[in-house]
Amino acid sequence: MKKLIxxxxxxxxxxxxxxxxxxQTENKTTKAxxxxxxxxxxxxxxxxxxxxxxxxxxxxxxxxxxxxxxAKQAYIVKAEKPYYEVELSNTKAEMNVVKFxxxxxxxx
Length: 108
Known about the structure:
With 108 residues, the chain is an alpha+beta fold.
């Protein structure tokens, strides 16, 4: 009887804890807003067309290390040493941002 009561309490506690936890769904509108806010706070980051990327960067995106990823957005960041940021997505709707130098090398 004691084990039954403990099991019932454990199950009830788990159910209530899960009911109180906020849903962890990804809101694409929020992500877009965050990106827009980041652009507003960094005036040196300028959106460009994918075709405007240097040929070396476009070539680097076709290599095996980026297989399965598709370029969605591109930016040039005008810093002391300018570089390019490329937003990539894959078939699982995962997002990734990769930074490149003008010669196509990846910045870590």
